What does this fold into?
Amino acid sequence: MHDWTSLSHVRWDCKYQVVFVLKYRQKKLYGKFRRKVGDIFRDLCRQRDIELLEGHLISDHVKFS
It folds into this structure.
């Protein structure tokens, strides 16, 4: 079921895709730091009451939707 938001003449279901890219796409997301980034994003989503559907952590960027 959709969580529709509405006004008098419009209804919408807003979804976002967020991509974080390191400066100059440096490949810095490795090892221990890679595990911490996922925990940090999950914690931020919990704090903001946001449902995290999917996440990808690649060596030079992070993509969540």
